[in-house]
Specification:
The protein is of the alpha+beta class and 615 residues long. It is 23% helix and 24% strand. It contains 15 helices and 30 strands. The strands form 7 sheets. Strands 2-30-20-1-19-5-6-18 form an 8-stranded mixed sheet, with helices on both faces. Strands 12-11-10-9-8-7-16-15 form an 8-stranded mixed sheet, with no helix packed on it. A hairpin with a 6-residue loop joins strand 3 and strand 4. Helix 5 packs parallel to helix 15 and helix 8 runs parallel beside helix 11. It is globular, with a radius of gyration of 24 Å.
């Protein structure tokens, strides 16, 4: 790959995708003069998808098609003809090393541009793993890229105390036992991917040292190739893990955050991702592009999530550690973006910044004293960081605009905004209370995911994800009991009527209940729910029930440490942002970005693309 700073055959287009970009927050900063570069761009609110789950909205951004066409109908979906739940944008393949093709339908706009002969460069392509883009394209995977085990990315809690029951700390983490060594320190075994039918593993040794001339403790981590140090409350540099098993060595990378200075050991490890220098999975296209970026800009996190929001939600890391991850990954992404822009040799450059979403939702929650989960201490200590994140984006936009010619264009997109949440509806619990879902042993609640305690022979309807309801239909579900035709029709109407009547004191909870067949008619109709519940402003679907658990209460205060991204709310309350150097001809929607990009180059969008060219 050669630098081509002087090569420009025609007009070029830069697209920035920024998670957590909210029109109300942005408007306030523009009015106060805090983001002068963003204020120079034409600014519009952006209609998002139904539902407005991030995976759904980003997939419409990528393809220019509605959810009914690309098939990603939520961050959590029921697999057709089963009771299994899955994250549809995370390809399955057992180990993650040989993933299946993405279940998303439709061609990405950068693939269409590359196919038409345009030189394309994409940094952190959202929900497009595994990478296989042909033509003159350099693409790095982003959101939806699995860890080495093929999962969404689980943080690891390392400690010397006894492991929790089941070996899993709260909110999707993995607990690792630290084995004491005779000479002091600890040995930690990290399980790796399955290779050749055999498990792989890597070993770390950890020990406390004292920094020279101080009494400060430093954790030394030896992974066999080098020793990395970390101090409590600060993330370490990258640690190379060598997983052995099945006759092959696999390299992964992680970082460590010591949680305290001893005397025992308690630390968090980031999810183990593929090493960009030696990617065992298709992180990029061409395959060597990930290593090229690491050589040029330094090693970087390769899992789809760039911050450990689950460790934060579980209380394992605090806001300082979360923001540290956000800023450090932002700096790397910013360096890549400006470097790849300056390297030349491209017509279309897309760079996505997913790391800001979780931090914005944490800080927005802290800044709203009307919310039950409001944290005045967080306000006092971190209140300026929300403005700081937007200011960093403003500075990046200013630098990009300096490098553009008069014929070049810039688009900045946030696919959904931040929707304040005060109360939660546990839809699975409501279905049990109303007698539509029946639990085994006459239980009234269940903490188990995946409908583990559901009695399917006596269940007529069940819920999944952020507001989807499915009938337990005979001939469609494995143990279906509801007959098609009048019985199903009457049941749907009964559900709709009762949900619209649901009250939280004197307040209505549900804004609308729409037919899945109406919303999702198209190629992905077999994945559609029978009903989609749309909640009133201030309400969200509870996080536990999205994966099939049944919490004890139907309605409860939202005490999550951040505002949820997938919430079941009205998409009109979660509109995103469209900013550009040219004004849009009509009110923009997330499906309009792809045809606008292709139209800029005079490329006819694929037949599946239903969006409009805004220019």
């Amino acid at each position: 790959m050669q630098d081509e700073p002087g090569v420009q055959d025609g007009p070029r287009l830069v697209v920035l995708g920024v998670d957590g970009l909210d029109p109300r927050l942005l408007d306030d900063l523009v009015v106060r003069g805090k983001v002068p570069n963003l204020a120079r761009l034409h600014r519009s609110a952006l209609s998002t998808t139904v539902p407005s789950d991030p995976a759904t909205a980003w997939s419409s951004f990528v393809t220019g098609t509605p959810p009914a066409a690309h098939g990603i109908l939520g961050d959590v979906m029921r697999l057709p003809s089963s009771y299994d739940l899955a994250m549809p944008c995370l390809p399955s393949g057992g180990s993650g090393l040989q993933p299946s093709p993405s279940v998303r339908l439709g061609e990405s706009f950068w693939a269409a541009a590359a196919r038409a002969g345009k030189r394309v460069r994409v940094l952190r392509a959202p929900f497009s793993f595994p990478q296989s883009t042909a033509g003159a394209a350099e693409v790095l995977s982003g959101a939806g890229t699995p860890d080495l085990g093929g999962g969404p990315g689980a943080y690891m809690l390392v400690r010397t105390s006894a492991p929790a029951a089941g070996g899993r700390p709260p909110d999707g983490g993995i607990e690792l036992a630290a084995e004491s060594l005779p000479g002091g320190g600890w040995r930690v075994r990290v399980a790796g991917p399955v290779q050749g039918g055999k498990e792989t593993a890597a070993e770390l040794t950890m020990s406390w040292s004292v920094a020279a001339g101080t009494t400060d403790r430093v954790l030394l981590v030896d992974a066999g190739r080098s020793v990395v140090s970390a101090v409590p409350g600060k993330w370490s540099d990258w640690i190379e893990l060598s997983f052995e098993g099945g006759g092959k060595k696999i390299t992964g990378i992680t970082r460590v955050l010591p949680l305290s200075g001893g005397p025992g050991l308690e630390a968090v490890l980031e999810p183990v991702g593929a090493d960009p220098y030696a990617p065992i999975m298709p992180l990029s296209s061409p395959r060597y592009y990930a290593g090229f970026l690491a050589d040029r800009y330094g090693r970087f996190r390769t899992t789809g999530s760039l911050v450990d929001e689950h460790a934060y939600a579980a209380g394992q890391i605090g806001p300082a550690a979360l923001l540290n991850q956000t800023y450090s990954s932002w700096e790397r992404s910013e360096r890549m973006t400006l470097g790849e822009l300056g390297r030349g040799g491209w017509d279309l450059l897309l760079s996505v910044f997913p790391q800001t979403g979780a931090a914005v939702r944490v800080l927005a929650r802290a800044g709203d004293d009307r919310l039950p989960a409001h944290d005045s201490a967080l306000d006092a200590g971190y209140g300026e960081n929300l403005e700081k994140l937007y200011s960093r984006l403003d500075g990046l936009v200013g630098e990009i605009m300096k490098g553009l010619s008069a014929s070049d264009r810039l688009i900045v997109v946030g696919v959904r905004g931040v929707r304040p949440v005060r109360r939660e509806l546990n839809l699975t619990s409501w279905l049990v209370k109303e007698g539509y879902t029946t639990l085994l042993r006459k239980a009234k609640s269940s903490t188990k995911d995946g409908y583990a305690d559901v009695d399917w022979e006596r269940t007529r309807a069940f819920a999944a994800g952020a507001g989807a309801i499915y009938l337990n239909l005979a001939g469609r579900e494995p143990q279906g009991v509801v007959q098609s035709g009048e019985e199903a029709k009457d049941l749907l109407e009964d559900l709709r009527r009762k949900l619209l009547a649901l009250r939280d004191g004197s307040s209505a909870v549900v804004k609308d209940v729409v037919s899945g067949a109406d919303v999702f008619s198209g190629p992905a109709a077999d994945r559609a729910p029978d009903l989609l519940v749309v909640l009133q402003a201030g309400y969200a679907i509870g996080p536990a029930c999205r994966l099939g658990a049944v919490p004890p209460r139907v309605l409860q205060d939202s005490t999550q440490p951040w505002i949820p991204a997938a919430d079941g709310g009205d998409p009109a309350d979660a509109r995103g942002v469209f900013l550009a150097t040219l004004p849009p001809r009509t009110d923009p929607s997330v499906v309009d970005v792809a045809p606008t990009v292709l139209g800029f180059f005079g490329i006819k969008p694929p037949p599946t693309c239903t969006g409009r060219n805004l220019w």
